[in-house]
């Protein structure tokens, strides 16, 4: 149990920038085994076992139930995940690891290396970014540390091929049980949205402008989509939309800087910390519109707006009852209700004490759709907010 005694990032005096790497073979060469790292000047770090000092409570809504564990007196860490199979994922990770004070951490498994810096853990694997489920839970079981949030670096693809830097929550809440999600996750599931999404989008825009990536790159939210399955507040940071842009080092550098500043690794205060900055308690739950959520973006780009799930039109499938005149008893099929409930519940849990306001992209709906959604939200006691309600 040597590792538990000294901690996984046990040395501070010998810390140095981790060299850039491209392949896992090179990684094996540049990183010494843990036993060879000098420990003479290190301070012991004690990590409680996963079972210690924890209690759990749960909340649920209809068929979508979310288990939340509240941990006390445990080391809380941010888990940042990248894959070596994607240049838009590994390049930002490389740029981040080139910054000061990273140290080798434990292998989650043979092909998953990690690096540590303060309360941040970078985890690298070689598979598609959307297929490795439960990485937060697996990290906790391996290390005894408690994961507070999960952040993924990834490429973005778009039909338009337009260059973009994006931030978004994940989940496939509209899929029915038995459906096979095309890009990971579990049918009917919405991840807890990372409360940093709104504040980091605004920080990303400032950093991209400072590095002259605007107007070439669009800085935007994306709607909730894809996996992998996670248990803790999660967000994706993506570079799009073609291979030429995925490989852009200036874009990778901006994404790395976003994490470095956003998590307070530069010695400053982290950005988008809900537990510290939640005096403005209104949280936007976006409903309707296209994948890039333009009406919701208009609100979120204002300072101090928090963002939960963003359900694009394709995530709230509604079957036309051919009663466009809106008879009150017309049953509108589709999984739109379960999707809204899953997204609302995940957002509510991710923002304890927050006031969740549904923000509708009214122009994206036909009148029968808007009437049905509005009635359902009212029935579920989910408040509806206008843009001015968020400021």
UniProtKB/TrEMBL annotation:
Database matches in Gene3D superfamilies: AF0625-like
Q: Tell me, what's a Pfam family for it?
A: tRNA_deacylase
Query: Keyword Zinc, does the record have it?
Result: yes
Which key words tag this protein in UniProt? Hydrolase, Metal-binding, Zinc
Give the protein name, as stated in the record: D-aminoacyl-tRNA deacylase
Q: Which organism is it from?
A: Arachis hypogaea (Peanut)
The record's PANTHER family line, in alphabetical order, gives: D-AMINOACYL-TRNA DEACYLASE
Q: Where is this region: Disordered?
A: 48-67
From start to end residue, where is composition biased (Low complexity)? 48-65
Q: GO MF terms on file?
A: D-aminoacyl-tRNA deacylase activity; metal ion binding
Q: Which InterPro entries match?
A: DtdA
């Amino acid at each position: 149990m040597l590792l538990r005694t000294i901690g996984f990032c046990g040395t501070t005096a010998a810390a140095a920038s981790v060299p850039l790497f491209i392949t896992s073979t090179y990684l094996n060469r540049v990183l010494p085994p843990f036993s060879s790292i000098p420990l003479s000047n290190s301070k012991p770090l004690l990590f409680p076992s996963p079972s210690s000092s924890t209690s759990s409570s749960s909340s649920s809504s209809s068929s979508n139930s979310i288990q939340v564990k509240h941990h006390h007196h445990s080391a809380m860490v941010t888990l940042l995940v990248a894959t070596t199979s994607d240049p838009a994922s590994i390049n930002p990770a490389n740029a981040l690891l080139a910054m000061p004070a990273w140290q080798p951490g434990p292998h989650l498994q043979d092909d998953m290396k990690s690096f540590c810096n303060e309360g941040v853990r970078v985890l690298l694997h070689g598979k598609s970014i959307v297929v490795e489920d439960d990485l937060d839970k697996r990290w906790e079981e391996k290390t005894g540390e408690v994961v507070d949030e999960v952040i993924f670096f990834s490429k973005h693809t778009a039909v338009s091929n337009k260059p973009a830097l994006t931030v978004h929550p994940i989940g496939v809440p509209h899929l029915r049980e038995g459906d096979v999600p095309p890009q990971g996750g579990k049918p009917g599931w919405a991840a807890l949205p990372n409360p940093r999404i709104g504040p980091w989008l605004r920080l990303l825009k400032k950093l991209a402008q400072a590095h002259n990536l605007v107007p070439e790159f669009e800085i935007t939210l994306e709607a909730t989509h894809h996996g992998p399955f996670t248990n803790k507040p999660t967000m994706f940071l993506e570079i799009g939309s073609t291979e030429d842009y995925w490989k852009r080092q200036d874009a990778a550098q901006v994404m790395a800087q976003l994490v470095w500043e956003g998590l307070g690794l530069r010695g400053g205060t982290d950005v988008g910390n809900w537990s510290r900055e939640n005096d403005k308690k209104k949280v936007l739950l976006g409903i309707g519109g296209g994948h890039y959520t333009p009406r919701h973006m208009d609100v979120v780009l204002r300072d101090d707006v928090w963002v939960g799930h963003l359900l694009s039109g394709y995530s709230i499938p509604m079957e036309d009852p051919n009663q466009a005149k809106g008879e009150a008893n017309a049953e509108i099929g589709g999984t739109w209700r379960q999707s809204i409930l899953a997204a609302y519940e995940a957002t509510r849990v991710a923002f304890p004490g927050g006031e969740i306001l549904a923000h509708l992209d009214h122009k994206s709906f036909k009148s029968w759709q808007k009437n049905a959604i509005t009635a359902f939200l009212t029935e579920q006691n989910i408040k509806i907010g206008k843009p001015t309600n968020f400021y």
